[in-house]
Amino acid sequence: MGEFDLIARYFKRPARRAALGIGDDCALLQPAPGTQLAISCDMLVQGRHFFADVNPHSLGHKALAVNLSDLAACGAKPLAFTLALALPEANEPWLAAFANGLFELADAHDCELIGGDTTAGPLNICITVFGEVPVVNGQSLALLRSGARAGDDLYVSGTLGDARLALNVQLGKLSVPAPVLLAARARLERPTPRVALGLALRGLASAAIDLSDGLMGDLGHILECSQVGATVQVDQLVQCIGSYPGPGPAENQVGIDFSMAQWRTLALAGGDDYELLFAASPHHRAAVALAAQTSQTPVHRIGQIDASPGLRLLHAQGQLLPNQYASFDHFA
Ligand code: ADP
Ligand code: MG
Question: pTM for this one?
């Protein structure tokens, strides 16, 4: 099977929204009047972001999910994406499963594949997504990292730590019972981009980011861009526990032998969760709760934005924890 047969068989579909889809030198995308394009690009590299034996259906899902997560963090509505693919070989069952995983998520978000590039090489997947953000009275409704203000509440969606839990098990650093691993692996391999929540937070969140590298590091980006500090109530993070059931009797029930401190490290420094972290004025508490409800996405308040710079981790009893939770950095 040649390059063009491969594209035609697995990736080419009739254009729907795009003025021109796959098959020419460029695709043509017409932004709706009164909107801006939000554009983001994410690459997945074998050996870095996934193992060679990863399920191709999950890989297709994840490659798009991590990109949709960036649109979600900006409050952008997904429109279209391009796919640059380096493949070691034209393995048809692999391609069929990859394309199915990719298009299932694409269709769920009405996000259209409009072009790409295909080459032989070590397995590498690069997707660029295009989304739409309204501009009202000359002002973009995009959610940025830079708008957090002192006094804002700090929230996180869904659960944290599972993706890193699954990774640590795969790396042989940890062992957990099968049902816990199953749930955690689903989070690692098939993350849920919080698109509906991002849209519902337009006009409410003062700043937002998606959690790809770990809560501490990604919160640091909001603080830097917004020139503020923050206090995270570590005890509130217990609400965001994923498949790990927490300390106490439940710990023994599922046979996980790690401590609250170890779990906290997963939640604070583990990456790959693709949840949204955002700030919003306390005046918007009811509206944020409604946004969570309408988007059917759990949201938890975990702290607040402070005027004084720096990131503080505070226990309910008031004592500060040392912040030793380095987040992921490809070159560190
Ligand atoms: P060019 O050489 O002009 O860049 P290509 O021959 O690489 O064009 O690609 C032909 C068409 O197929 C283009 O419309 C391109 O966007 C599309 N395409 C190539 N690879 C992919 C892919 N993996 N997924 C979707 N579309 C693709
Ligand atoms: Mg090309």
Answer: 0.93
Q: Are 279 and 205 in contact (CB under 8 A)?
A: yes
Q: What phi, psi does 46 have (nearest 5°)?
A: -60, 135
Cβ(83) – ligand 1 distance below 6 Å? yes
What is the separation of C-alpha 75 from the centre of its chain, rounded to a whole number of angstroms? Answer: 13
pLDDT tens across 280-289, in order?
Answer: 999 999 999 9
Sign of CA dihedral 23, 46, 121, 1: negative
Q: Whose structure tokens read 């069952």?
A: 93
**How many Å lie between the centroid of ligand 1 and the Cα of residue 127?**
13
Q: Does ligand 1 lie within 6 Å of residue 2's CB atom?
A: no
Q: Is the CB of 25 under 6 A from ligand 1?
A: yes
